[in-house]
Write a structure and sequence with these properties.
Dipeptide-binding Protein, domain 1; 16 helices; D-Maltodextrin-Binding Protein, domain 2; 24 strands; 3 domains
Length: 538
């Protein structure tokens, strides 16, 4: 087991404890981009545990929820969610309105006037188009380029087959963008809520290169500006006074990076943190019933992926055997955190969820399949690796699965626990035979989950490809009739989690959170979008 521990975590805790009183009251001391020191008043600051270091603040390439939690407060897209609406309805962002035509094959977006970036440069439609072009450019290496493949010739541009002027995204007026799609897409505006599609400043990117999203270089137009980024310690945000919308109610947001949740909870109890998210299941049992504890369902999927290019995972019988050998209910009972078992790829609560789809727990069937693969009773089966990122619940689930596979199949699994930034890089470049992964909805449509596993998705780390599956996903995305769409997505899911099985759905997560009583207006929602501009301090 490889365990990488950040050497500065004790410093984070010490700094929090030391944040104390002067004549002006309590403060938080941070180091700004130019190396100077600044003091942020606790009475004007929301203090959140971010859990770990973000992989990047480049919103086009960020692919983890930690980075997104920060960039969501630094930037806006053309379209936003109403975070206080249970259905997550769309509301205007940088676009005032959007209108479909030709049965949602064409879209027109009218952009706001008078918006400025935080360096004073006016926002223009070109910045929005540049964001899409930057996302679709192969060398950008974004995991989300396929999000915009629905735009006419966008995929061909990504693959170097056409020039940008042939892509169906054009500026058609002083504040207007028109989009032509390959096929009707009724949910297209939802895609533009995603951080990968947000505008960019190409002049800043050309000036600073890969470092453009670092302190002192990054320019943004969201409700907050980046004040400080002290690696493995904190990220501090300061209210953007030139923001086009209603100004953020809290002046500062300080995001700490404390991996050990027990430590974070202790700091919360002593009044040094205002929000602790991702509360481990074992801690939730003690906290239930408290008014400051929230346990909420999320549109999410927790799954185990398998690298189908690495033996023995290149054998579908082995993959099916492992799926049949895992009792999800045992995992749920062990966690006790309100999670729900699932074998469907589309999560419960979303259109397309199919309770009866997927391979169920069947140890007898699992043993038949492992024998068919040539490993009767597990004899001769090579030792495989199961990797996961540092987290108490991930550790407990991995240990349980390790025990179940030994008990039900007679096979040995080696666990490897890796720090988040290292882990996500390794999974993207060379995923192990078995690895933990999760998906939190980027937009509330089944396409978000099924497109994830297509052969053209950069987020499919299993290396599995199926032309038939891709056809199902493309067909489903263009259907308006819900019943026809449901049937197509059911076919796609059966192929994915019953016939080929490159990944095993395990559970749908819940979010356990502690939120201080001094906070009002905290955004609780099923997609865990954490924009803090509407939050107040009592």
């Amino acid at each position: 087991m490889l365990r990488i521990i950040s050497v500065s975590r004790s410093f984070v805790v010490a700094a929090l404890v030391a944040a104390g009183c002067t004549k002006g009251g309590k403060f938080i001391e941070v180091t700004t981009a130019d190396g100077s020191s600044a003091k942020l008043a606790v009475t004007e600051s929301l203090r959140v545990n971010l859990n770990t270091e973000p992989s990047t603040l480049n919103w086009t390439i960020a692919s983890d929820s930690t980075s997104t939690e920060v960039t969501t407060n630094l930037m806006d897209g053309l379209v936003l969610y109403d975070l206080y609406d249970k259905d997550m309805k769309l509301v205007p962002g940088l676009a005032l309105k959007w209108e479909p035509s030709e049965e949602a094959r064409r879209w027109k977006f009218t952009l706001r006037e008078g918006v400025v970036w935080n360096d004073g440069v006016p926002f223009t439609p070109q910045h929005a188009i540049d964001g899409w072009k930057y996302l679709l450019t192969k060398s950008t290496a974004s995991s989300y380029s396929y999000f915009l493949f629905g735009i006419k010739n966008a995929r061909a541009f990504h693959e170097g087959k056409v020039e940008w002027n042939e892509v169906g995204a054009k500026i058609t007026g002083p504040n207007e963008i028109s989009v032509e799609l390959e096929r009707p897409m009724s949910y297209f505006p939802y895609l533009l809520t995603h951080h990968s599609t947000w505008p960019v400043r190409m002049d800043v990117i050309e000036k600073h290169g890969a470092q453009w999203a670092m302190p002192g270089k990054i320019v943004t137009l969201g409700p907050y500006n980046l004040k400080s980024w002290e690696h493995d310690h904190l990220i501090a945000l300061e209210r953007n006074e030139s923001y086009y919308g209603e100004k953020a109610k809290i002046k500062n947001v300080v995001n700490y990076m404390i991996i050990e949740q027990a430590t974070a909870i202790n700091l919360y109890e002593s009044g040094k943190l205002d929000v602790v998210s991702q509360v481990p299941s074992v801690e939730r049992r003690k906290l239930r019933g408290r008014k400051d504890f929230y346990e909420e369902p999320t549109l999410s999927l927790y799954y185990y992926g398998m690298n189908v290019t690495k033996p023995p995972m290149n054998d579908a019988n082995v993959r099916k055997a492992i799926a049949h050998a895992i009792d999800r209910n045992e995992i749920i009972r062990m966690l006790g955190g309100g999670q729900a078992p699932t074998s469907s790829w589309v999560p419960k609560g979303m259109f397309g969820f199919e309770e009866n789809i997927g391979l169920k727990f069947d140890p007898a069937k699992a043993r038949q399949l492992i024998a068919k693969a040539g490993y009767k009773n597990g004899v001769g089966f090579p030792r495989i690796e199961l990797a996961f990122n540092q987290n108490e619940d991930h550790q407990r689930i991995a240990e349980n699965v390790q025990a179940q596979l030994k008990r039900n199949l007679g096979i040995s699994v080696e666990l490897r626990n890796v720090e988040w930034k290292v882990y996500i890089s390794q999974v993207k470049t060379d995923a192990p035979q078995l690895f933990r992964y999760g998906w939190l909805a980027d937009y509330p449509d089944p396409d978000n989950y099924l497109a994830l596993m297509t052969g053209y998705s950069e987020n499919n780390h299993t290396k599995w490809k199926s032309a038939r599956f891709d056809e199902y996903v493309i067909e489903g995305s263009s259907l308006v009739d819900l019943e026809r769409r449901r049937k197509v997505y059911a076919q796609a899911q059966k192929l994915l989690v019953e016939e080929e099985v490159p990944a095993i759905p395990i559970l749908t997560s819940t979010e356990g959170m502690l939120v201080s009583p001094r906070i009002t207006g905290f955004p609780h929602n099923v997609m865990r979008v954490r924009s803090y501009k509407g939050v107040s301090l009592k």
